[in-house]
Structure formats: structure tokens, C-alpha cells
Amino acid sequence: MERRIDRIYRFVLENANVTTKDVADSLDIQRTNASKDLNLLVKEGRLSKSEGRPVRYFVSSQSLNTSFDTNTAPVKSTSVVSPEKKILKQNSNNVFTQIIGSTGSMRNAVEQAKAAILYPPRGLNCLITGPTGSGKTFFAHAMFRFAQTEGVVEADRELVVFNCADYANNPELLMSHLFGYEKGAFTGADTEKDGLIQQADGGMLFLDEIHRLPPEGQEMIFYFMDHGTYSRLGETGKNRFANVRIVGATTEDPHSALLDTFVRRIPINIQMPAFSSRPAAEQLDLVRVMVAMEANRIQRKITLTEDVVKALLGSVSYGNVGQLKSNVQLICARGFMNHMMNEEIHITLNDLTEGIKAGLVQLSADRIKSTDISPYLEPEMVVTPNEIDELIKTDTYELPYNLYDIIGDKAALLKTEGLDQETINHFISTDINVHLKSFYKDHGFTFDTETRLTEFVDKHVIEVSNKIAVLVSERLRTHFQQNFIYAMSLHISSFLKKIHVGETRETNANIREMAKDYPTEFSAAQEIRRMVEKEFQVKIPESEDYYLTVLLVSLREDQSSGKIGVVVAAHGNSTASSMAQVVRELLDVTNIIAVDMPLDMHPRVAYEKIREAVTQIDEGSGVLIMVDMGSLATFNEEIQKETGIEVCTLDMVTTPLLIEAARKSSVLGSGVNELYESLQGFRGYGQIVEKEEPQEKQAILAICASGEGTAQRLKEIIERPLQQRNLKHIEVLTLAVTDIKTKVPLFKQEFKILATTGIVDPKVGAPYIPMEKFINQNADQVLDELLLENDLAEQEEVMLDENKARELCIKFMEESFTFINPNKLIEPLWRLAKTVIKNDGDSADYALMVNFVMHMAGTLERGILKQPLKVDEKAKQLYQNVTDNVAMNRGLNELESQLRITIPTSERYYIYQLLKNNDEINA
Q1: Do 76 and 45 form a contact (C-beta atoms < 8 A)?
Q2: Do the beta carbons of residue 280 and residue 324 sit within 8 Å?
Q3: How many CB atoms sit inside 10 A of residue 575's CB?
Q4: Average pLDDT for residues 257-261, to the nearest whole number?
Q5: Overall pTM surpassing 0.70 (yes/no)
Q6: How far apart (Å, rounded) are the C-alpha atoms in residues 457 and 463?
Q7: What's the gap between Cα 790 and its chain centre?
């Protein structure tokens, strides 16, 4: 079959001077794909394109001299290279020479990669490790290209790429993708299918985020590494053979994230350097390469002022080369928008976002880095199109479309609508951010960490912290950590809030003693206090000088030991990791470690993981464990007894609380017990509010047949945003349908009923919120509408059809239960629901079916745990006297037979009550 790019080339060959739209419409392909392939053909020298708008493509004269053959390798461009600092060495026999740092910071990685590829007889499997955005995927493609140029892998093969995170929560599906499956191996396996191992036979398989492979997957992979044989899912005996070189990539420590037996089978570990650890010359070369790629896209010269280059270098933190690339694309897109009609794109500080501009201050505060970079800087960095002839194009951060075509087309369209230039720029700026952010959000970072900071801290505080950074760089001749502005912003915000609510704190004796040893920092701290007083018109106690002194000392980069360790542990597949990632991005700290605990994790396994994390993070000053549930706090004494490490445990962890813990844990002179005490009174970083009178106790009722199943799950869903808002005066109460008449009057004596939810509307004079809204929509949004006293009826109704209702059931079961398999149970439970519930095809009927299936899922989970609901003998006898519903009993009996289970009478009683209260059974 003819490749898409060859179809496009043939079309241009037959129809001269075509636009991207012509190609997309004529060949029936997406415009972004057409743009991507057209620009790739231009870079390869097979096509040329016109200046101006719209851009037209035609076959280059060089390409016309070469016969068209889809099996022939693309002809490379022979355009003359500008003498302005050519970055990539041209050597077709060794692709690694095109990588910046191949003889510097990347030298060891390149040598290891060559050895892995060329080692006889079939090469060596290897693992690429490094932080987010350091270039692991790019390097894997470079290895594959090298293997092709050396004849180790055939030229027509393609690198097979698989991201293990895509199916990390479904090991069976993940294994089926890797190894393939036999017909009938699982529900839906109507035909047999080859896996990625078979596709990569004779080539290379790249497993990104390999640490997300489940243990059984790792075992299957290392068996394949040892023997070269494997079996498909549903197949007995390992009778299939494949010759595959495996390259893995991970941001994690292999020894903690992978099985030891798996790691031992990977002899080569290639470490990618962080951007900050690369020499100044390489960092500048990387900026030039990224800008040159954009110059190639728009075929115009791009000029950057010295301050813009410095801002770009200073703006790179956690995201490394990937973050640099996203920032370069953002400023080039904004520069193109502002200078679209000029032949040359001249980018100044005015074209930068505030977040990237802050990089200039960051770099200025970093004396050592500024000194290192200074000899390599020029008043302007000038980059011409086609400066880089040859480059490994494929990496994770390569946009799959030409952003500049989109900008140009949008500008032309808006101009024809009669909009002025300022309005056009506003619309296009929004488009740029939408396109780039939607693309880069999948790669684990945003454009600038300062945007994240504004979620917690007032913008004025951040501006003052930037001024303080300049002041400190002038007063103190020392090198500060990159997180200075973030740490200072959070510190100022925290003590301002204490002042506004009238709180005072005693100065710790250790803090006073320590401050005496740093008179220069103490003098700077006094100056900072006076600046903050003036900016915010408040009186700050002089005791704050000591805390500011300790903060300045703690933020010096040479202070790297003796910090309090922080372990954050939370239920969910990535809850703890997500919170820890936000903190690392803001504060650039290393004394925090996350422990994710999937809901099916055994408590003993959770304990072992937390204990191991405590041991790993301890630096001699103790460890603070922050957990999401109070039950985990019971691990405290046992861990301290086993490890001998001083440990304190704080529950109800939130992201702001974790940020405050990480900030304070880095301050020298405080102990873990003092940290624990200080965090118990933490009030957040938000806007200052006056003290309020005790609020009226309020409640949301969650109702199900028993009050213990679905109602309990709804309680957990609703309580999460309530806890995040610290709304302690609102409780979620669970209630059985049989107790509505007796318990609701008692609840009303103690609480104001805000709303009800669950399987039935109890008609108690409060808004009823269908349970599917909490499950299918954002619980935060529903609560906001409720707390703002908006008309909940005006909210968009969750309209259900059969497919949406089934999906809702599966989602609820996946999030709420541990031992049942939602995908296997949905068929028999849905069939039972159809049997016992009258359905006219209305959304309300499907909502009732959802309620019923959710209740039945809880029944089955309780059966597995041998924890059935209980009912008193009187109610059970009453039920046995009145239940003559043949449809319900026949359906439940069939379910028992099919699943080989027994549904006890007590559970049948609550199923009966559910149906009865929804008028599905005549009493």
C-alpha cells in the first residue's frame, strides 16, 4: 500500500502550486497531517514552497531530476548552510554526531548506545533513564537510525513504540497489545491478532514509561529476553519466536520501580543528563537548534535578543529539553503573530509570556550559571532557514502539524471579517495557547511553573518576590536555588495570612541561634521585611527577620543535607504522585517521595512501601508522613520502632498543605515535631478572610437501599471536594430507603438538609441531585452550584441512553470496587436490570437501571468479602411474606446460577426495597 506521504508527493507532482487545503480535500486526509507531510517533504528537498499566503507547494528542481520511486530513500536537501554557527555535524554514517553534546555531556550515552546496538550476535537490551523532557524518546529513535545505518536493522523497518502507561490499569489489555491474542482469549476477541513483539521482529521495540509495566508483564518480557520465545494471550506453551531488540525508558529509579529480576536482564543503563547539568555551550546550542527548527517551518530568518535567550535558558526547570522546546515554540509563534508581514521575525522581551520573562530574573539570581553562559552570548542570536540540514525529526515534543500555517490562515480569515489587528492578535494568542497546551499537557508539564504558583499565591506576592530576588542577588554574593521565587512567595503569603487573622508565633530558640551565625543574611532579611511592609501596608513583627534569615540560608544551593524528609501516601493509582509533582515543580525540592496505593493494594503491602520510602528519604532530621486517611496514621509507631527514625504522621493531606510541608521541611534548625505542630494550624495561601461565627451544621443525604453500599460510595465522592474546601460544617450522611421516614426528622433537628442524592428522591424539601450527576460530571462543579445557591435545575441534565448508562455503570464499578471485574459483570447485571425494571427508553428509566446495577455490584463485592448486609428477623419475615415478584426472584436465581454464587435473604430484602421504592414492585 502506498504511504500517505508518497500519495501527497505524487499529487503535488501531478498538480503544481497546490495549498495544504487542496491536498487535504483532494486526498481526503486531515489538514494537520497534510501540513505535516508537506513540510517534511520540503525539509527533505523533494518539494519547495512559496513565500506569502496562502503557502503553495511545488516539486523542487532537484527532485525533478530524480526519478520518483516510492522505495527509494528520500532525497536530502542540498541547500547551502549558513556559516552562522552550524550546530549539527553532517555524517551520514553516524547519526549520533548530529546530537548536541555527543562529544560532551552525551558522550558516555552515545558510546553505550553504540555498544548496545553493535554487540554480537543480536545486540544488548538497554534502558534509558532520565528526568522528564531530557530526550529519552529522541535518543531511542537515534539508536534505531544508527542500527539501520550500520545494517543491523533493515532500512525498511520502523521503530515500534509502545507507551506502557496507556494500559497500566488494565494488565490483560496491556499484555494483549504486547504479545497478541488468540481468538476467544477474552470477550470481544473475535479474531486472532499479532502483538507488538511480532511487529518488531527483526527490528527494535521501544517501551516508554516501562516502570508502568505490571510485575506479570515484566516477567513475560524478561522470559522473552532470555529465550526469544513467547505466547499470545489465551495460548498455551511458548512456541512463538521473534528477534527483537528491546529499549526501555523511564523517569524512575529502575531498582525501586522495576523487579530486580527484570533489571538484571538489562545490562546497559543509559543516563540522559538534565538540562541544568549540561555545559553552557550545549544549552545555547540547544536553543539555536530549537529556533532553527521553527525557522525551517516558516522559512524566515529569526532573530532573538540576548535577553530573550537568557530568559529561555532561565525558564527551563523540571521539563528540561522538552520544556525548552515548548517555550521556544510558544515565543516563535507569538513572534510570528506580531511580525507576520515582515520578512524577518525579530523576537524581543515584548513577545514573551510573563512566565518565560521570569526566567531572566531566575538566571540573574543564579550567579554561577550567568557567569558560565556569559562568554557564549551575543547581542543577537540570528538563525536562518535550513541552517540545520539533517536532524532526527522524531521526538515526543514534535508538533504533528504546522502551527504557523494555522496562525496565518486564522489571521487571514479574521482580517476578511473586518477585525482590527489588536483583536486578531488576541484571538490568535488564545489559539496558540490552546494548541500548544493541549499538546504538551500529555507530556507532564505546563508552559511555566509560575502559572501553577498563581493557583496558590496572590500575583502581587509573586511580583514582590521577584523584586526580592533582585535585591538578594545584589546584597549576597552566593548562588541560590532555582526555586527561590516560589519558596519566597509561599513564605510571604503564609505569614501575611497569619498577620491578617491575628495569629502570632514565638521565635524558636534554635532559629535565633542559627540566625546569629549569618549576619549578612540577617541584614538582608531586615531589608526584605521592610520592603514587604511597604508593599502590603502591614506591620510585620521583627521576629520575622529570623525566619527570613533561615529561609535565605536554606535556599542556598550548597545546603543539601539534614532536611526533614516528607512522604506523601494516598489511595489511588497516581494521587500522591500528582501532588508530589506539583510540589517539585514549584519548589524544586528533593526531600519528598510519593507512595501511590491503588484501592486493591493490601494494607501490609502499603505499610512496606511507606516504610521503605521513610528509610529512603531520611536525612537524619526525621520524616513527616502525610496521608489522605486517618487509618494510615496507625503505621506511625510501628515504622518508628522498626527503623529507629523519628516519624510524625499528618492526615487529610491536600496539595497546599503538602507545599507548605515541603517548604518548611527545607528550613534548617527545625525538627519533625515542630514541623508537625506548625502544619496543624495551616490556613492555606488563599485570600484573607475575616473570622466568622460558627456556621450552622448542614448535611447532604446519600440514599441507597441499605445505606451501606452505593450511599457509602457517594459519600466518599462528595466528601473529597468538601475536604479540599475545608467545609467541616457540612457532613454527608448515609441513609437506607427503609429508614427515610424515621431518620430524616431526627436529622432535621440537628442539621439543615442542603440536598439529597442516591437511588430515590425522599421529598424532604431539599434539592434532589441524581446520583449520576456526581459520578458522570465534576463533583466540584455540582457542589459549587449547590453552595452558591444556584438553581440546580438549570444545570445541564445528564441525559442517558443505553450506551451511556452502561458506561456509567462500568466507571462507577471501576472506581468504587476492588474485587469484581466490571467489564465481565456488566452483561449479566444489565440483563437482570432489564428483567426487573420497566424501561420505556426514557433517561429516567436508564437512571434507575444504573442505580440498580450499582447496588447489585455492591451486593457481589460484599459476597466476595463475606460481609453481606444484615437485616433484623422482623423485617426478613415481613419480606418473605410479601415477596412474590416472580421476575425479581427468577432473575436473581439465574444470576446465582451463572456466577455460581448465593445471594442471601438479607441482600434480597434490600434489592426488593430498592425496586419497591421506585414503583417497580406492587406492595
Answers
A1: yes
A2: no
A3: 18
A4: 83
A5: no
A6: 11
A7: 32
Do strands 592-597 and 380-383 pair parallel, antiparallel, or not at all (unpaired)?
A: unpaired
**Taking Cα atoms as reference points, which of 777, 765, 775 lies closest to residue 809?**
775
Alpha-carbon gap, residue 74 to 54, rounded angstroms: 26
In sequence order, the 6+-apart residues with CB closer than 8 A to the CB of 359 are: 310, 311, 312, 313, 314, 315, 316
Task: Read off the C-alpha cell for 691.
Answer: 473570622
Contact (Cβ atoms closer than 8 angstroms) between residue 724 and residue 718: no
pLDDT tens, residue by residue, 409-444:
666 666 676 666 666 665 555 555 554 444 444 444
Answer whether 647's CB lies under 8 Å from 622's CB: yes
SS3 of 597, please? Answer: strand
CB 239 within 8 A of CB 198: no
- Alpha-carbon distance 719 to 731, whole Å? 8
Give the model's confidence band at 134: pLDDT under 50 very low, under 70 low, under 90 confident, else very high. Answer: confident
- pLDDT 10s digits, 196-242: 999 999 899 999 989 888 887 888 888 888 888 888 888 876 678 88
Question: What span, in angstroms and rounded, lies between the C-alpha atoms of 646 and 636?
Answer: 9
Using DSSP, state whether 136 is helix, strand or coil. Answer: helix
How many C-beta neighbours within 10 Å does residue 734 have? 20
Hey, how many other C-beta atoms are within 10 angstroms of the C-beta on 628?
A: 21
What is the percent of the chain with per-residue pLDDT over 90, rounded to a whole number? 6
Task: Tell me: cis bond preceding 54? Omega within 30 of 0 counts.
Answer: yes
Grid-cell match 454527608, residue found: 732
Residue appearing with cell numbers 441525559: 799
724 pLDDT exceeds 50? yes
Nearest to 798 by CA among 774, 762, 766: 774
3-class state of residue 70 by DSSP:
coil
Asked if the model's pLDDT at residue 589 lies above 50, the reply is: yes
- Alpha-carbon distance 526 to 519, whole Å? 11
Q: What is the structure's pLDDT at 85?
A: 31
Residue 299 CA to residue 56 CA, distance in Å, equals 13
Q: Are 728 and 704 in contact (CB under 8 A)?
A: no
Report the distance separating Cα 193 and Cα 660, nearest Å. 51
Q: Which of 643, 612, 648 is nearest to 632 (CA)?
A: 648
Burial-class residue 65 by CB neighbours within 10 Å (0-12, 13-18, 19+).
exposed
Higher pLDDT, 870 or 624: 624
Please enumerate in sequence order all residues whose Cβ is within 8 A of that of 80, keeping only pairs 6 or more positions apart, or say none.
none
Query: Which residues have CB under 8 Å from 417's CB, separation 6+?
Result: none
CA distance 900 to 828: 13
C-alpha cell at 430: 488564545
How confident is the model at residue 50, as a pLDDT?
74
Q: Which residue has the cell 522470559?
A: 223
List, in order, residues 6 or more apart from 173 with CB less than 8 Å away.
167
Distant-in-sequence contacts of 157-161, Cβ < 8 A, 24+ apart: 157/202, 157/203, 157/204, 158/203, 159/203, 159/204, 159/206, 160/196, 160/199, 160/200, 160/203, 160/204, 160/205, 160/206, 161/137, 161/206, 161/208
User: Exposed, middle or buried by CB within 10 Å (0-12, 13-18, 19+), for 797?
Assistant: exposed
Across-strand partners of 703? 735, 758
591 with 665: CB under 8 angstroms? yes
Q: Which residues does 65 contact at the CB level (< 8 Å), separation at least 6?
A: none
Q: Which single residue is written with the C-alpha cell 531566575?
A: 362
Q: Is the dihedral of CA 652, 655, 659, 662 positive or negative?
A: positive
Residues 304-324 have a mean pLDDT of 86
Among 58-62, 155-159, 232-236, 703-707, which is the least confidently predicted range? 58-62
Task: Supply the DSSP symbol for 75.
Answer: P
Q: What is the pLDDT of residue 445?
A: 41
What does the mean pLDDT of the chain come to? 77
The C-alpha atoms of residue 812 and residue 225 are separated, in whole angstroms, by 39
